[in-house]
Amino acid sequence: IRKNSLNLFRVALHGNGIDVPEKSVIEIGLLDDDEIKMIEDSISSVKPFLESDKTRDILRNPFYMNLACSIVATKNIDSFSGSEFKDMLCREIVTGKKHDPYLATQRINTLIDVARKTSNAGMNLVKCEMTDAAISLMKDDVLTGNRDSAMLRPGHDILTDWGLCCYVDDCFRRLESNEINLAVFYEHIDKNIASRNIFKQFVETHINE
Length: 209
Hints:
The chain is mainly alpha-helical. 60% of the residues lie in helices and 5% in strands. The chain has a 3-stranded antiparallel sheet.
């Protein structure tokens, strides 16, 4: 069970006459290299996606690793690209598990906004509006920082990249629908290094398709 849900879980058990003392709570830390190797040997389909340093870093979290293994179990790996895997993984992480479409959309929009601000600020913490979506993202460790000062950034580099990619994709869809022209499309692409690299990857992916 995730840390942010632990207290609620213990309260629910207490209401049913079951007390869970602190000493009975075992915290599972991040996976080390040996543990990841065991997972690779046991679930070979996840191994190709652990070759990326950014993906490997976020999958040290056991919750995310379990999510990744569930994703690959439902896909034909031979036709499943690394970019598709990252998109599915990040989308699952960012939208959360509350099954609230409005909150899920707000969480995605908030992550995109923070990712853009962070990349424009040299990957430093940035001032954010502490909306319900931002608070829920902090509780899930998707955003990290100081809640009191509202200074935040994405919790992992791969989430920053995903947020930037979503923004570029949205701009491209607006171009395709003739909502904006090509000149405006290029104007909308942020000029920082991280955003330019994501834009380059986006273009290369579409060329390959």
